[in-house]
Amino acid sequence: MLLEIDFNSDEALYIQLRNRIILGIATEELREGDTLPSVRTLAENIGINMHTVNKAYAVLREEGFLTLDRHRGAVIALDLDKLRALREMDEMLRVIIARAICKRISREEIHRLIDEIMDDFGG
Amino acid sequence: MLLEIDFNSDEALYIQLRNRIILGIATEELREGDTLPSVRTLAENIGINMHTVNKAYAVLREEGFLTLDRHRGAVIALDLDKLRALREMDEMLRVIIARAICKRISREEIHRLIDEIMDDFGG
DNA sequence: GTTTTGTTATATGATAAATATAACATACTG
DNA sequence: CAGTATGTTATATTTATCATATAACAAAAC
Q1: Per CA to C1' distance, which residue is closest to C25?
Q2: Segment B62-76, tens digit of pLDDT
Q3: pTM of the model
């Protein structure tokens, strides 16, 4: 999988990297058991520091997207704690939906947008 | 409206403040034409610096949630550029939905969560 | 034994966030 | 008119975060 970074973005590099990998899992470019490049290899490929990749991996582990073994490396492994996932999703959605309500975006429009995005992911 | 801040949060103070105000508008605690406290008053009430409040107000103006007049102060005024709002919403939703897919949260569960949150807002 | 892995430690420069003082222009208040 | 309160701008300082750099460690693989 190709992992790119936008150096002009206002998003932190390790956050961009984390999101790219999550998007990769969602689109099934990355599957359970797949291994990611080592922190040093990926850092060199992208052209960033090893610790930045390490931080992205550490966050992904903490959030339940992969496991990190000393010699197998970074392996996609999904922790399906749905209660936790739903709780986190609720928190993230709340502000977004509040914005939508302010802008007079209807419930139907939101549902439609969700469907469009889900279709893009090949669901 | 009561505007509180969590000093232990990892979110920037001005972002927290911005989100609180957006939530206030969505729940109709704040309505079109209502005025917010002056930057100095609110800063003192919360216990933060004037410029932090000023930044939150400036962001809210830029995002189309209020206008800032020299003597009326900060007034709730919604810019209903729905195209822009939908575009921004799409971008914010994409990563969230990718996370949901990874966690095996179904399309129906997402729609249900949206409805729950919308109901909370009194829609 | 050498290599590769994630991991930790420490230091440094760069950028952003928050604070502190000060001043300005404008409109309301008395 | 003087005084007050408003957002706004400017400048400086401190603090926190991000990214980098170098180094070292422990454990499994070869």
Answers
A1: B70
A2: 999 999 988 899 999
A3: 0.94
